[in-house]
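Section 3.1 - Work completed
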Amino acid sequence: NEYKSYLRIAAMDGDREMILANFQAITGNDDISVCLATLEQFNWDIDSAVMAAIDTPEIPAPTLTSFTVEWRGREEQFSLDLNTTTIGALKDMLSQRVGVPAHSFTVIGFPSTEVQFNSKTLFQMGVGSSSRLQMVESVQPLSQSQSAGSSQTMYKLRINIGGTVHELKFPSTSLISEVKQYINTAYNIPVVDQQWSGWPPGTSDTLELRDLVLEPWLTLFVKRRRETPNVINIDSDDDEFDDAMDAMPSGSASNSSGSNPLMTAGNGTEENVLQFMSVFESRYGRVHPIFHVGTLKSAMAASFSVPAAAKRPLIVFLHSDKALTAHLFCSQVLCCENISSYIDDNFVFWAWDLTSKKMEAYVMEECQSIFGLEGRHQVGQYIPDKLPLMIVITKVASSPQVFSVFQGDISPDLLMAQLVDAVENYEQTRSIEKAAEVAQEQRNLLREEQEREYMDSLQRDREKQQRRQIEEKEKMLEQQTESAKISSLSDLVPPEPDAGVPSTDITFKLPSGDRINRKFHHNTKLKILYFFVGSKGFPPARYRLIQNFPKRQFEGDEMELTLEDLGLTRREILYVEEVD
């Protein structure tokens, strides 16, 4: 304890170190831990601490107990007399140490379940040597307003009046009775007719706001104790409620959270979901999960009829204005920003209102068509007595199943933990599906590649066949053309001369080695010999006539000369040679 006392002295600012030194000099007390405890007990008011030490010398030193208070990852050690130190004094000490105003936080983690008031001692709250308390943010002061020349702390209260949430400012010293009187004056609800809920247990009209531990998310509810004749009693039996709802014009039905019903019998599914969203926002604000607009089956498709990487569990939110916890759950849990954001990032969210029996029958039929009779029974066991509900649906081996069910009395922290567990659990299933999907995709790619290669091969074969057919047609056309040319050349060759007519006997030696003999009149021109050879398949454009002895090539200007002019009047041998 002495070592901890020195550590605390080292952490103090100069003013407190001077106060401690003066206190020890005046009282003559050398026990540093006792001096620190006394000063902290009197909030470092040296006059009060000295008077207590001098006026009551016979009182033994207080019995000090060490415990820890956590705040944003840091720990504050205290050694205090539990019998005399109050919650309010502890908050003042924490305020001075961490530099946070006492009205902006509360202390939780007390072993006792007693209602917390600033006047209660730590001993009454069960604090011991092993206790670990925590500081958490509470209602924040909104402003400093000058009143009678001094600043005054204002508190913000969220009060739901007739289904509408009002954020009202009150001085921290306001009595509970003064808050109620303000509601009477501003909203015409006499105090005697006010029926409140949401105050911390043990609250009385004589307490001040600063005496209460008010959590930042707390919403108070007030309604008239005496119902008017036109208001439907939501606790009446279902048939009476349904008859009243159906008999009233649209928008005139009254419920526990506002005058407009969340859904209207007779509307289409999408129309009802849009109406649910609109009325829900008018009651609870725009911070809420994103509603899937459509049927429950379409919500299932949006959750599970998508690639594995995009699959998400489905939340089916079943609401009823008859449920006692419905408004608290919606305002304090479902519309928390962190819960709403987590649902948007990880779930598909579908909502339906079961205030009317007709709406209830619709959703039960949907559940049966999707989950079968067993699923209908599993959901039906919660309706209507255990509403509102959040049903988490996952899909395993192509079969939808109810993973978990949350009722309206769940806390925000527990709901968040359960949602995280549902996501992590489904992620295992989804990872298996993704692996199977990747394997299937690879098989599909391989099959597509094989089919593409096969089709490419067929295309190449078709193109080759087409080229072959074209070539054959061209060859045939060429042959026909060649035949026509040969035929036309044959017509240009005169018949062989008769016996006794001066003629030349010519042997044509072909490239293949074959020979052709033919007689021509001496006055036959050289071009006729080319016509003759061409008629045998050796066209003049590609072949020429050559004489070996003497070496001689017949072409060009000689075409118009006669055999006699060329000296070819005896038996001659001419070679048919292809032109290079």
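Second construct:
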Amino acid sequence: MEPSAAVASSGTVELKEFYIFNPLFGNDHDDELGKVLYYYPSNTDINTQLKRVGLCEAIIRFSENFNCDIPCEALHTQKSRYVFYQPEPDYWFTLVLSVPSVIRLTSDGIEVVDYYDDQVQNNVFQAVLLKLYRKFSLKHDKLETMYKYHGIEALKEALKKSIEMNLKRINTNQSGIAEIFYGLQFLPVDRHMFLKVQCFINQLLLTFPQIKQLLLLQGEKLIWTGIGQSDIQVLYDYLLKELLYQHFLPGADKQSTFGFIIKKRSHVSLLDTTSVSSNNGENSDTIDRDQNGGAGSEDGETSLDSFFTASPSSISPSRRESKVNFDQRCRKRFHLLIYKAEQSYMVMFLHETDEMDPMFMIKLDSFLSLNFCSLAKLLSKEHVDTPSTSQYSGFTNSIMGLASSFQTLPLESIPPNVKFLYFNNLNLAVKMTPGSQSDLPSYKMLADLKHDLGNITENGEIVVKMVTEPCPWIVGKISNGREFYAIFNSKASNITDIDEELKKLTDAHLNNIFFQD
């Protein structure tokens, strides 16, 4: 009898539908569609929209019979995956994806469809939904606030503009652990340079009290910020991939432009840090971070939000249940100003109520041209610009604070058969070798290891060997809020050899950062 053979394949994850709804809206039979705030694809007929949303609403209510404290996260069917995320009470984001499949012929000549359910990872796409919500909140406000002060039609229009643009950027097949971590690139500076940066920022804030928040970029890398983590992640992504995108393209003139390059009124919405409780500083990691990276709140104290991201993927099991305790802190609108000198960018935020009158702008421009330009020249002199090294396209070397902790590593120092990813949950620093997504099955396995390690409260390790070619070994480790993942395309045939290679790798590239014992 001949073995079965594959004759066709649709082994990709595809975005089928996406919708946002609130079951409290549209209770009137004459306006049932009112509960649907956004629906993709937009050309779907009204009856189909109501059926699909009604089905999801029924699933969510049914799941509450089993656990009313934790909302429904996903529904698995043979051909589709429904991923749910509730960012605010009664507001639901729903992502519908196709499950990859392969059509094969059996020995009897009968076509059989095999579905690969494990290729769609819930934690990855919940992180995607979280990112969509954060991007909307950054440009607008909370959903309920938008509805309360501007009405449901304004909310729908804002969602349409924001979601449609960001949906186009989702690569459902390449999405993986990078979406979960959503890390930042930090530029390490020595103590002398850091003191110069800190003194300049203090002087700027004292001279112009209208400036409530700011961040300093050197090229694509972050040097200093006082903005909490729940905002800095999405703000950093927005600056690099949208507002300042043209400045980082290959061949772009990165030296000639000086002065204000962007002035936008009432442009972003950030959390009001004055309403956040301060941390008592018992954790040594967080103390170092605030001293070295300046990530505290504007009043000089370090906010609780500075140390934990809002991503469910980065919350330990003991805290995971808190994700249903929605953030009740208010957001405020801010004007956005970006001043460029050399390769440095000073991003400043003023309260919406403060006027950017001509006299204020003249004084600020005069102050920055005198003080910031000289600082920018020093930064550019010490840190020669390098090609783009985003966490998705190249090698990411990131740390908050002093250079002694995390030096830039040459690519040739990394073994060609090894790919690794390091992430620090405390400061969002990420370090990732290039080409980590080239072996897609191995890369996707990292998100599964991340999910399994989420059940470990402190320290742990998982080692697996894949049976598909090239049969790599994959290691996931968690320790002291830091996570490390490695893919070894090695001929080593036993776990002892892999353990030795792992120790060499961490000693060479993560010395004094990742504590594996």
